[in-house]
């Protein structure tokens, strides 16, 4: 992982408080911020957190911009100091008749094309405003912020982080991350006890890879921790995981498998092992009985011809290949060839099943479905006295699970909790809660497993 922007990276494009996730696919990649289209080619090889000035390109009918890196963010002008010269005592005499701006819409659009910077455009708007000078200082600042948001000509390119990704997904559509807000995500990580050592089991059914990315972030790269990520579909959602661009060693610590496929693989292997264990005493007894050896040898000799006929010439072809000088494959080479023919999902199932046999240090379930049946299927793979965390947007679902788990007595210290986060605007003489905020970010059912 480098500290410089390169092609192939996921980038966080920040314009004031607005952030957007964008993949830098190639040098022709552009990003749309509102009606503005920005070319990213000149961002390559610049350090992350660099602030760029948007330079307009002269193309008719398009608001297309290229990037010019600033040597220091202090080059951004302070509009408050530049434009606020006098203020009124109150706004009681100001009438909003939409006639206070002397410039027409066409003239303002022409200004955007002619002026070199957004501060010049805003300055012209202030000069031609009949009511700006009579507004209070607070009202003037709000006016400038609205205009600055509209005409702001700087962006900052940042490296993706769990906090930024969570905020972006939540703002775009909370349902795409199953309603998991950042404060709830932090509680899930805290309750589950994910750290640099141990094996962890996660089931999630559609968070754009946010949950596995957050848990893998807590596990780290240079550790012995492992994460088995279960999902219901054919392909796991991993956008957030790819956006974080973890080192290859850290990415290898996460195994994503289909929950039904890996459970089938696990139990089939266990049944096969039990059958082998049951057959071992009989095989050992037969080998010890010397009187059976001639009978076995005679049976093998008498069936050689029949086997050759059943395979329709396969034995003959092998004999001809040997006559031509081609040696028959060794058993080890055959086994290696079989392993190479295994598909990636089969190898991932084997890796996940091996961790399931070792058992896990915590279980996290973030599901659209009712979580209780999933919990019953996965609980046997969790060690005693280990945390269990279940998230749902519906309190009644977790209440039902709470009652069932109490009755079974498989998990103790059960708690159903909800988060309520309130954001504040912090400004001199204007500190207050945000006018709009999310009411709830779902519910958590937590507890600890009981050993058998």
Automatic annotation (TrEMBL):
Q: Where is the signal peptide?
A: none
Q: What GO biological process, any one, is recorded here?
A: tRNA methylation
Localization per record = Nucleus
Q: Name one Pfam family in it.
A: Gcd10p
- Where does the protein principally reside? nucleus
Q: Where is the composition biased (Basic and acidic residues)?
A: 298-310
Which purpose does this protein serve, as stated in its record? Substrate-binding subunit of tRNA (adenine-N1-)-methyltransferase, which catalyzes the formation of N1-methyladenine at position 58 (m1A58) in initiator methionyl-tRNA.
Assembly and interaction partners? Heterotetramer.
Q: What is this protein called?
A: tRNA (adenine(58)-N(1))-methyltransferase non-catalytic subunit TRM6
Write down the species. Anopheles arabiensis
């Amino acid at each position: 992982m480098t500290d410089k922007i390169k092609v192939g990276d996921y980038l966080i494009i920040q314009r004031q408080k607005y952030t957007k996730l964008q993949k830098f696919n190639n040098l022709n990649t552009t990003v749309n911020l509102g009606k503005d289209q920005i070319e990213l080619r000149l961002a390559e090889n610049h350090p992350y957190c660099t602030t760029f000035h948007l330079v307009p390109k002269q193309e008719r009918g398009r608001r297309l911009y290229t990037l010019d890196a600033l040597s220091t963010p202090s080059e951004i002008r302070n509009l408050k100091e530049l434009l606020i010269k006098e203020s009124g005592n109150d706004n009681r005499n100001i009438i909003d008749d939409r006639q206070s701006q002397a410039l027409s819409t066409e003239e303002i659009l022409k200004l955007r094309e002619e002026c070199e910077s957004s501060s010049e455009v805003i300055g012209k708007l202030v000069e031609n405003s009949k009511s700006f000078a009579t507004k209070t200082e607070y009202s003037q600042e709000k006016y400038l912020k609205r205009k600055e948001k509209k005409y702001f000509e700087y962006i900052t390119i940042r490296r993706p982080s769990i906090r930024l990704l969570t905020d972006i997904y939540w703002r775009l559509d909370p349902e795409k991350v199953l309603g998991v807000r950042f404060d709830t995500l932090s509680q899930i990580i805290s309750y589950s006890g994910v750290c640099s050592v141990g094996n962890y089991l996660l089931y999630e059914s559609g968070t754009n890879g946010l949950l596995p990315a957050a848990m893998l972030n807590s596990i780290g790269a240079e550790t012995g921790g492992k994460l088995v990520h279960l999902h219901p579909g054919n392909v796991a959602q991993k956008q957030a995981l790819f956006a974080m661009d973890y080192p290859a060693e850290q990415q290898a610590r996460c195994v994503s498998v289909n929950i039904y496929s890996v459970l089938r693989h696990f139990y089939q292997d266990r049944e096969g092992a039990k059958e082998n264990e049951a057959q071992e005493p009989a095989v050992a007894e037969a080998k010890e009985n010397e009187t059976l050896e001639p009978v076995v040898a005679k049976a093998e000799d008498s069936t050689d011809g029949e086997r050759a006929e059943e395979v329709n010439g396969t034995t003959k072809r092998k004999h001809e290949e040997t006559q031509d000088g081609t040696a028959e494959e060794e058993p080890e080479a055959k086994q290696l060839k079989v392993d190479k023919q295994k598909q990636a999902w089969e190898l991932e199932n084997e890796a996940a099943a091996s961790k399931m046999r070792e058992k896990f240090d915590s279980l996290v379930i973030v599901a659209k479905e009712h979580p209780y049946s999933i919990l019953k299927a996965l609980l046997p793979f969790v060690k005693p006295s280990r945390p269990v965390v279940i998230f749902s947007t519906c309190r009644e679902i977790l209440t039902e699970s709470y009652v069932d788990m109490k009755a079974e007595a498989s998990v103790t210290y059960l708690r159903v909790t909800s988060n309520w986060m309130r954001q504040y605007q912090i400004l001199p003489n204007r500190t207050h809660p945000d006018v709009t905020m999310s009411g709830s970010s779902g519910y958590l059912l937590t507890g600890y497993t009981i050993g058998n």
